[in-house]
Structures are given as C-alpha cells and as structure tokens.
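Service request form, structural biology core

Requester: graduate student, group of Dr. S.
Request type: structure prediction, single chain
Budget code: on file
Notes: please return the result as structure tokens.

Sequence provided:
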Amino acid sequence: MSRGRVPFPDCTALLLHFFVLLLASFCSQTFSKSSTTSVDNSNCTLSCGNINIQPPLRIKGDPQNCGNQMYELSCEENNTIAVLSLYSGTYYVQQINYNEFTIRVVDVGIRKIKDNYYSNPLYSLSLFNFSNAQDRDPYTPASIRPVPVIFLDCANPMNSSIFVETAPCNINKRTYSSTSPNSYSYFVVGLDMLGYASSVSSFDLGESCKITQMVMVSPSTDKSYMMSCEAIYNEIARGLEITWFDYECKSKCGDNICVQGEDGLFCQNNDPGIVSELLSVSLINFFMTTKYEYLP
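Core staff response, request fulfilled:
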C-alpha cells in the first residue's frame, strides 16, 4: 500500500512566486510620465534667454493654458533672464532640469563685483520658509540636507575656526559689517535641519554676535570645502536647487505612491491590503500546484 505526503513547502519557490505576482501587479498599476496626455503649447513662451520653459512652468502674461500659475516665472532684461519670485524674494533662474523636476535659483543681489569680491544676497531663506505642504508650497528644497549659510555681525573678533571672515572678499580688505562699520562680519556654514548652528553654542557667540541673514545652498562639493569666503560666495552664487516633485506626483498619481525611475515618473497603488492579498493568492496558488510524492 502506498502512502502520500506533501513535502514541506520550498520557501525560496514561495517567495519567488510571491514576488512575480507582486511585480505583475506593480506593472499593471503603474504608468510613466510619457503616457500623459500632451497639451498644445504652441501659443506659450517656450524659452527665456537660454532657459527652456515647459509645463508646469510658465511665463507671466502667457495664455491660461500655459503651465500652472503657481509655477510662473517672469522673463526680464529684454527677455534674456528668467526670474522667480519666492517668499517675497527675487531669484535668477540658473537652470531647469525637467527630468529631475528641479530649478536652480540665485539671489538677485549676488554679483561678482571684481576679481574675488562679491555683493551680498538681498533676501534671507531657510527651511522655515518651506511649509513642506503640497497644497501651500509649490516648491521644496531638492536636497535632503541643503547647506545653510548664516551671516554674522560681531562686536568683537572671533577666533574660532567655525567662523569664516568675509574680509578677503570685501573690496576694501577690512573685516567689517555691512550693517555696522564698527563690528566684524563672518560666515558660519552648516546648520541643523531646524536652522540652528549645530556646531555653534551660545557660549561661542555670547552677546557679541547677531545673525543678520541666512541663505541656503545646494553645494557642488562637500561642505568641508567651504572654509574660505571665496568658496562660500562661489556656492551662494551657484544657488539653491528647489523642486516641484510633490506637485508632479500629486497631479499624476493623486494619493497613490509616487516613484521616480530612470524612465520617468511612476505611480503605485498604496493600498496596504494589496500586499496581504497577493500573499494569500500566492500561498493558495502554491499549495494547489504542489506535486505529491508517493512512497512505497
């Protein structure tokens, strides 16, 4: 008489089976940005200087069908320079990357006056400006940790290495403050996510220093390089990258999960029941297709 038994399930086969089903579900519920309906923008401004303009960005004064008004730029100086207004500040648009959904902007006050001498930015900008809410802020910082730079005015000279003198970049070669000729001006680079100098204590500053301005940069290199006023000004002049990725996700994926891949933007159903449902189907299908062994 023969007796039958079901072998202990092969975990590797089970997992493989599950992931195949999961991949199939993912593929059936995703779409790339190339599948979106094209919009006629023949009556829209397509460039400003050397900056290409595509939706959702638009140029002020264009017809309503051009881009989104939340992402409106102005084209100034005889249509050669794209300008963005952001939190009561004005910024030159240096570069737009539509594949990465980013804009690199620079404070309009930053100019190289002569050799290594620079003018200061006109506006302060920190993480506090960004509410990180899709329905309120059209942009968020593109970098997970943009590097903040604070401008300090101090009544006394500061000898700590965390303070970078502005004197070598001032045209009169003095360590002076732009707000007070009798004080000293410094940079401090690198703050925590809330905008506080993580490496600077109140003891370091005492009562002699006050913060006069704060800006953020998306550094081209490691922030440890920013140890001279020239390097710092170069990074400020390079600008900050901001992104409209949240808007792109919301408009294409709604409340579903948004994934940025090499071939575009993809949406994935975020229903937590999908995984458990797939696992159940995988288990049932696995046991139904399991072969019996008959032993003598």
